[in-house]
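input
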Amino acid sequence: MMKKKWIMIGFLAAVMLQTSMTAFAAPKQMSDGTIFDAVYYADSNPDVKAVFGTNEQNLYTHYKLFGKNEGRLPVAPTAYPTPATQQSVASIMENGFDPVYYANNNKDVVAVLGNDPQKLYLHYTLFGKNEGRRGCAPTNTNTSSGTSSSSSGAYKYGLDQTQYNRVLQRADSNNGNAKSLVSKINSYRDDKDRKKLRREDVLEEAATLLAMEMDDNERASSTRPNGESYSSVFSQFGISGFDEYGMIYQKNNTSDMGKLLEEWKSDSSDKSELLEKDYRYVGVGRSNKYWVLLFTD
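output
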């Protein structure tokens, strides 16, 4: 009831001053650059249409203030024509978009659009990019740790194959807890009007390595065993293109994600990291008694 009350208050003046302008019959680019189809929005949201009719500006104002956060779409997922739909898969990938990566990391999109590369690319260009979704995996820029063997025995990210396999195994075994923890963190952020965080595989691997280093050395610290700051793990794993980053770490062998989150919320510095408004991505790492969260924008 409170939500409907605010909608009515916020749009009362707009409804009273509604002109005779009717909704357009096709998607159009609004003044802020957003593609919006008033007819589609009204027909797809009869509860909104019942209040605001077909007035394009009122419908768009509702989308900006409420609909977007409620998961309502501004245009039909596959209806809006764009040059992207004429591109071959090869051309799409040349533009830096990996449809396999996008599908694997955006199951909600696949549930609606399927696995068609062109539809996935269309979603990314119209919505995903603005939502903070990545079109491809971060590139590993650490040239000294390629995927082939070298004189130093490096396999990937500066790790030998056995070390890297340990990271993957730990990350995989912790997947259920990580999913539960991020869900609880996002509920907490949502209550504080913060954007939800998205789990990122490479961040998860980097966080897992940090947790393993703490476990191996029996010491929770933001300084790695080689004396470098924890932040060096970003360049090691080829994670770049961000402005804000942070970490939460703790020695704690609990498997109760609610209890773990409550402990972090009770610490002022950890709470600040959990609620940082610019963060968009998170990786959860665990190795026996040590937990690590890595964040980037």
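quick obs: Strands lie at 28-29, 35-36, 198-199, 245-251, 281-287, 290-296.
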